[in-house]
Amino acid sequence: MWVVGVDDDDEFEFVSGVDAGLRQEVESLFYFHPRQHALSASIRESVDRFGAPEICERGERIYIGIPRLDAQCLFACHRSRRPGVPVGVVLYLRNPADVLRILHVVAGPGYEHGGRFSQCGLAPRLVDEVRRVATRIGGVRRVALPYARERYLTVAAHLDR
């Protein structure tokens, strides 16, 4: 199933894949973000350590993955503004067994800090969604934050929204 998190009161839908016709939007969002230069050293370090993310296709859907690893992604789609079109994405993997490690998190232009839609808090919402996923995986106790050394969030047994 592709839909991961939907709450009728939530302005975002979190999905693990989007329509393959949105490849250009996904490329722009993930690879060509206008502010990625601010984190370029950390991004490069993550790529050197874990590998380069790629857009992968399964059926009529695309997702971002790292082929040699079992990396997962979640796209955030703003339900009222651009339904079905990703405005943010988080890429993560289980490494080591008790940690979900966030490798990359992207809030699209306008959703980043200071942007027109920044009040949505998209980047923290993406991190929270990974934390929610972690609560459903036995043995995962922490979520490692991206672009920071040894920064973790504790995973509670049940996260309430």
Overview of the structural elements:
- With 161 residues, the protein is of the alpha+beta class.
- It has a single domain, classed as Aminopeptidase (3-Layer(aba) Sandwich), CATH 3.40.630.
- Helix content is 21%, strand content 31%.
- The protein has three helices and ten strands, in the order βββααβββββαββ.
- The protein has helices at residues 23-31, 40-50, 122-135; strands at residues 3-5, 12-15, 18-19, 54-58, 61-65, 72-78, 86-94, 99-107, 142-144, 152-154.
- It has a seven-stranded mixed sheet with strand order 1-2-6-7-8-9-10, with helices on both faces.
- α3 links the parallel β8 and β9 (142-144).
- The longest helix has 14 residues, at 122-135.
- The chain is globular, with a radius of gyration of 15 Å.
- It starts with a strand and ends in a 7-residue tail after the last strand.
- Mean pLDDT is 87; it is low at 1-7.
Give a topology summary:
Blueprint: E1 3-5, E2 12-15, E3 18-19, H1 23-31, H2 40-50, E4 54-58, E5 61-65, E6 72-78, E7 86-94, E8 99-107, H3 122-135, E9 142-144, E10 152-154
Parallel strand pairs: 8-9
Antiparallel strand pairs: 1-2, 2-6, 3-5, 4-5, 6-7, 7-8, 9-10
